[in-house]
Amino acid sequence: MDVDMEARDARDIASRIVTPGTLVTNDSAYMRGHGTFVENATIYSSVAGAVERINKLVSVRPLKQRYSGEIGDIIVGRITEVAAKRWRVDVNSRQDGVLLLSSINLPGGIQRRKSESDELQMRTFFAEGDLVFAEVQSYFADGALSLHTRSIQYGKLRNGTFVTVFPQLVPRSRNHFHSLPCGVDVVLGVNGYIWVSKHVPASKVEQNSELIYSDKNEFISDDERETIARIANCIQLLNRLYVKITDTSIIFAYEASLGHAVKDLLTRDIATDLAHAVKARLEQQS
């Protein structure tokens, strides 16, 4: 009986949303973790978030926080500076990430050591303001993320629009590049940066690897522009109503939005109705 009560108490602790100053537990058997403080042998939350418990360690995960990178994360970033043999990249974290010249593919997929001539041409690869699709490969001693683009799927982003969401709404998964049925490609960066663009067949990029560093957008028709804008607005309304952002939830939101004009999707009533419809379909699917 005592074991059942202990298990039930543990579930109660780890299944709540709390605000700063909320009592988390007064059981002295628990240790305080991040997002908590102790007063009079009682653990309180110091931030607004979800209570998490790992064995006897209790912490509170903030509902809104900066992106904290992990090795293997797929991210979207913006080049902020071209430095010596490296680019600094805004990755929506506490400090910029770093993309080394040695961590990119040269045009044509050539594998060789980077030379001084490559360093002089760095802005032909990535310049300030360019958006890049990359992967976290390691950390530097100061905690900055080290990125790489050594794959044909990574590189400069074109033909689309940029959307910012809460990083915690983009779950880590095996695939972060999705070609949606509506003819739009979506890159879901786990750092909360998302790129929505016209679909470009992978075979086209493989046949012409120079496209990885091209600055020119392809022709985008009015219908394609409207579809891109609709998908971008669907992502924004999911973010506004705090719905997990995956390829499935985006498709559900897109299908539910077809009865409304693109410009009306972010109005409060329509956005709320669409978000509730997406939640209902996700619950049915699960």
Number of helices: 7
**Morphology:** flat
DSSP strand count: 17
- Helix-residue proportion: 25-40%
Please tell me about this protein's structure:
The protein is of the alpha+beta class and 286 residues long. 26% of the residues lie in helices and 30% in strands. The chain has seven helices and 17 strands. The protein has helices at residues 2-13, 116-120, 122-125, 202-207, 222-240, 247-257, 268-285; strands at residues 17-18, 23-25, 31-32, 36-39, 42-45, 49-54, 57-62, 74-83, 86-90, 97-104, 131-139, 145-149, 155-156, 160-164, 177-179, 184-188, 193-198. The chain has a five-stranded mixed beta barrel with strand order 8-9-10-12-11. A four-stranded mixed sheet has the order 1-6-7-3, with no helix packed on it. β8 and β9 form a beta hairpin. α5 (222-240) crosses α6 and α5 crosses α7 (268-285). The longest helix is centred in the last third of the chain and has 19 residues, at 222-240. It starts with a helix and ends with a helix. Mean pLDDT is 86; it is low at 1-8.
